[in-house]
Write a sequence for this structure.
């Protein structure tokens, strides 16, 4: 009774292993959490992560080092944007670096993301990510197996990683050192029979030592969101991810991909410049294009 009162006071909801809202995938863990505490609502959690009430939801874990490189942060954010835009839930741990970048990418689009915390679901961790925590709760969820108010200790983080791995159909490691908590997540995912992917990196970079080792051992090579969608949903899912675009936006995206990558190259008359620039900006906001020096646009897949 005291715990129920604490959950209510913290603005959380709870689901346990006997509840139809409890994700069936979590039950595959030998040490599945007896209960999960949810910020954002159990109903939304079911929609994002699935459960006996809904088996169709697809989720991908995007994890990596806290000390990510600028390229690693950009890749993680792009994966978050692309997966969320394709209707796939992004799962991560809201840690500094890769995790937070993936969440930020997802909330910049549809908000389909679940953050799994090592402490209480009502305690943003790290504290510097309190704003991201609030943004996640606008359309996503924050979950934890530890009760409200619990402040994470060192042992909580590897325990948290098993929940991330179990919730996801696919686990993608963006950057990781040779000894990294992200590799624990990947190992658990592999033990559960789930797909594991890794983003390659320079052989001399310490941040790529773990991911390159995963690739050597058989992990799926991940270059962009299209590769993740193919591994999670099936071949051809890149095209499916663009289904939400209007025909005009799809045509413009194809034109940029074919090399007409500046405003001048895409316009035939001055009157077209305004509408085409607006469309390019929309594709940027949706995460399909990025503007680079020289006024050029490059395609971000998907």
């Amino acid at each position: 009774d005291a715990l129920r009162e604490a959950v209510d006071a913290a603005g959380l909801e709870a689901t346990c292993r006997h509840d139809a809202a409890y994700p069936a995938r979590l039950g595959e863990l030998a040490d599945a959490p007896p209960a999960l505490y949810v910020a954002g609502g159990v109903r939304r959690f079911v929609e994002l992560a699935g459960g006996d009430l809904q088996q169709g939801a697809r989720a991908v874990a995007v994890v990596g080092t806290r000390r990510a490189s600028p390229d690693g942060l950009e890749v993680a954010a792009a994966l978050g944007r692309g997966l969320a835009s394709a209707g796939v839930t992004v799962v991560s741990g809201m840690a500094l670096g890769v995790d937070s970048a993936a969440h930020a990418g997802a909330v910049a689009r549809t908000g389909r993301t679940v953050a799994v915390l090592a402490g209480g679901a009502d305690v943003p961790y790290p504290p510097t990510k309190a704003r991201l925590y609030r943004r996640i709760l606008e359309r996503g969820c924050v979950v934890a197996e530890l009760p409200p108010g619990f402040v994470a200790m060192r042992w909580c983080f590897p325990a948290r990683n098993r929940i991330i791995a179990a919730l996801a159909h696919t686990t993608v490691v963006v950057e990781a050192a040779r000894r990294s908590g992200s590799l624990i997540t990947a190992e658990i995912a592999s033990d559960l029979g789930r797909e594991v992917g890794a983003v390659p990196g320079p052989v001399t970079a310490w941040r790529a030592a773990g991911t390159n080792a995963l690739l050597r051992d058989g992990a799926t090579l991940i270059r962009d969101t299209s590769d993740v969608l193919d591994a999670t949903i099936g071949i051809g899912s890149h095209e499916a991810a663009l289904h939400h675009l209007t025909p005009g936006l799809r045509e413009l995206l194809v034109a940029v991909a074919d090399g007409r990558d500046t405003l001048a190259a895409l316009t035939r008359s001055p009157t077209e410049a305004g509408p085409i620039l607006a469309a390019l900006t929309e594709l940027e906001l949706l995460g399909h294009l990025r503007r680079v020096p020289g006024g050029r646009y490059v395609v971000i897949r998907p």
